[in-house]
Write a structure and sequence with these properties.
Oligomer: single chain
Structural class: mainly beta
Number of strands: 28
CATH topology: Neuraminidase
Helix content: under 10%
Number of helices: 1
Largest sheet: 5 strands, antiparallel
Distance between the termini: 29 Å
Strand order of the largest sheet: 1-2-28-27-26
Low-confidence stretches: 1-10, 378-393
CATH superfamily: TolB, C-terminal domain
CATH architecture: 6 Propeller
Radius of gyration: 20 Å
Strand content: 35-45%
Length: 393
């Protein structure tokens, strides 16, 4: 059924596909094998399959006994290898029973495409967490074939996000098809030679982007490889970042020097002080939500690249876990503007994803919803595209 929305442009709607998911669903992923299936991620350690018309009765993956749950811990991310159709590899991000972050590889069972073989678990990368929160947890393969991993600052030392030796508060980038650590059975990956710290003594070579607080959800634009990140804020701003291809390597998004584009606190590195994000060496957010209007936890989305709703092409959809508004961001020669699609409050949205055709979905605790409709460039209440006065920043 179509979920009513408020001020929209003018016919963007959210269509309910199922509300029978496990109550702790936090994300979704596509296998890219042409089957049209959507795999949903449940925090308790389960992956379920939506076939496009029905939810299968048995989970695809059950690692509940390996996963610590509660709060921000649990099974948090899922990504399928670009060659999944032939090698049957997929990767998960979860917090283990000690609360540490684990990225592991699995294979689907031989002869049953809807059942993972839990016995094929292979550790890829793990790192300790100083606290139960700010784990990040998203996984995506880029067009380059490398696996990208979002890591929060760990809820401990904020300035760890600015520490080149720490994996916390970063987007990591690794090569899962090679092994640069053959003597370490717990590290089964390689370092892409174009990573900014590759070969640099004392620096973590896995780092791709730094200066993040808790990048809970990020995405790649399937049309051009641009990177979009939703970074959860501290007490005032929720931020959404756009890193075009060519600007990603070693980009620094500024936390905790800045929360959004506002100054926050100073780290010990001799880099400032700065009074404006625009005058700093950091990459500033393109969109923000103020916690004064009810926002509390940025849920980064996707740029629409499907074919079913042509007028939505290029619109970046995003939301917030608490605020309950679906937002749309539009890039133009003058920069970014945004507008309210409408109220989806009560859903507690937790993550976005695409199907094989680029159609856009999001999940909440137990629901899977699709973004559909059209955009004419005119708000239903008369505001023109680019006029953000209809939007509460």
């Amino acid at each position: 059924m179509a979920v009513p929305t408020g001020a929209q442009g003018p016919n963007i709607t959210v269509v309910e596909r199922t509300t029978s998911l496990r109550g702790d669903t936090v994300g979704l992923a596509r296998p890219g094998d042409g089957t049209g299936r959507i795999f949903t991620i449940a925090q308790g350690g389960y992956v379920e399959i939506w076939t496009g018309s029905a939810l299968l009765g048995s989970p695809f993956l059950d690692i509940n006994t390996l996963v610590s749950t509660g709060g921000e811990r649990g099974l948090l991310g899922l990504a399928f290898h670009p060659d999944y159709a032939s090698n049957r590899y997929f990767f998960v991000y979860y917090t283990d029973l000690s609360g540490d972050s684990v990225i592991a590889r699995y294979q689907v069972s031989v002869g049953d495409a809807n059942d993972a073989d839990e016995g094929t678990a292979t550790p890829v990368l793990s790192f300790s967490q100083p606290a139960p929160n700010h784990n990040g947890g998203d996984l995506h393969f880029g067009d380059d074939g490398y696996l990208y991993i979002s890591s929060g600052d760990g809820g401990g030392d904020w300035c760890g996000s600015q520490d080149n030796a720490s994996l916390l508060g970063k987007i990591l980038r690794i090569d899962v098809d090679t092994d640069d650590f053959p003597m370490d059975s717990d590290r089964n990956y390689g370092i892409p030679p174009t990573n900014p710290n590759a070969g640099t003594a004392g620096a973590a070579p896995e780092i791709w982007v730094m200066g993040l607080r808790n990048p809970w959800r990020f995405s790649f634009d399937r049309a051009n490889g641009d990177l979009f990140i939703g970074d959860v804020g501290e007490g005032t701003w929720e931020e959404f970042d756009h890193l075009p291809v060519g600007s990603q390597s070693n980009a620094n998004l500024g936390w905790p020097w800045f929360e959004g584009d506002s100054t926050f606190t100073t780290c010990s590195e001799p880099m400032g002080p700065f009074t404006s994000c625009d005058d700093s060496p950091f990459t500033c957010p393109v969109l923000e939500l103020n916690q004064s209007v009810g926002a509390c936890s940025a849920i980064g989305g996707y740029r629409y690249r499907g074919s079913g709703y042509p007028s939505l092409q290029g619109i970046y959809f995003f939301t917030d876990w608490c605020e309950g508004e679906l937002h749309a961001g539009i890039e133009s020669a003058g920069g970014w503007s945004s507008f309210d699609v409408g109220f989806i409050g009560g859903f507690g949205p937790t993550g976005f994803g695409e199907d094989d055709d680029g159609e856009l979905y999001f999940v909440n605790g137990s629901g899977l919803y699709q973004v559909t409709g059209s955009y004419s460039g005119l708000f239903s209440d008369g505001f023109e595209s680019g006029d953000t006065s209809a939007w509460s920043p």
